[in-house]
Amino acid sequence: MHSTSSLDPVGLLREIRDKARELGFAGLGVTGVDLDSAEQGLLDWLAAGFHGGMDYMARHGLKRARPAELVPGTVSVITVRMDYWPEPDLSAALALQADGERAAISRYALGRDYHKVLRKRLQKLADHVATRTGEFGHRVFVDSAPVLEVELASRAGLGWRGKHTLLISREAGSFFFLGELFVDLALPHDEPVKPHCGRCTACIPACPTGAIVAPYRLDARRCISYLTIEHAGSIPEDLRPAIGNRVYGCDDCQLACPWNRFAQAATEPDFAVRNGLDQALLVELFAWSEAEFNERLAGSPIHRIGHERWLRNLAVGLGNAPATPAVLEALRRRADDPSALVREHVLWALARHASRGT
């Protein structure tokens, strides 16, 4: 543990909070490293196979629930929140999902890759702390390692775990990113907040594919975010119709949550919409070559799935779209795509339209 005997921990934490606000973080909380009570839930989730093809979750085992094993010497975890909602209300997102000719992309992915933004800001926060404490042990995490970020954030008082498994804040709903700074500093801990979901289960029936199998229990194998982002292979045919026009991620459970009427608009310019992705037509995106995909989506979180998965997802969206001449022609143009994965989904889409008499 880094010695802070010459420092006032309360005063140091106050400075850390001030610097975090200056760096654009909307909230900051601190908790310890004892997550013992979360271990059994993690083991049960893995044993049920709900992690799907995300084998890294099983490989890391209980390190996810043991910060001091993941980063030896860790004494405290600083958790931060940064809002990303790009609009003043939820109506535009809801209208987009109802427009079968347009691509519905999870709102967090419309701007710059949040991993890069938050990681740089957290490192700046750590650099600032070092000016007060001297060199200290720390590591930055932004959805990049086996960290139970929702558990840590809830223990740090930033919100509570909703029945959809995401963190919810009374002041900001759930449309925000989380990041962590593991430190070897003994800092005062924040108190957890009381859960406020009550009897509400709006998020559960809102899931198009039934991925929320019970309150607080998500089967990633059915989750549209997993299927369109993490999953590398063929999307199960029985789930494709329910995916609709969601071609990268899904916000349905969050859009149904009453607390998101308090969602805060992003103040970070990097999260502003790029490439018109909030209103893009499926046929337009499907026409992008790999070079166009790489050029337009450089710096976007979408870029990491690659052009092949992007086309796979769009083919499903086009299979669910109205059978306009433009939609059918776009599919036919890629019926002989070099990728077997893309061809499979294109042929499914064309067969789906044919079965409906189009």
UniProtKB/TrEMBL annotation:
Active site residues according to the UniProt entry: 143
Domain (4Fe-4S ferredoxin-type): residue spans on this chain: 185-217
Protein localization: Cytoplasm
Pathway noted in the entry: tRNA modification; tRNA-queuosine biosynthesis
Catalytic activity: epoxyqueuosine(34) in tRNA + AH2 = queuosine(34) in tRNA + A + H2O
Family statement drawn from the similarity comment of this UniProt entry: Belongs to the QueG family.
PANTHER family named in the record: EPOXYQUEUOSINE REDUCTASE
Assembly: Monomer.
This protein's name: Epoxyqueuosine reductase
Species this chain originates from: Uliginosibacterium paludis
Taxonomy of the source species: Bacteria, Pseudomonadati, Pseudomonadota, Betaproteobacteria, Rhodocyclales
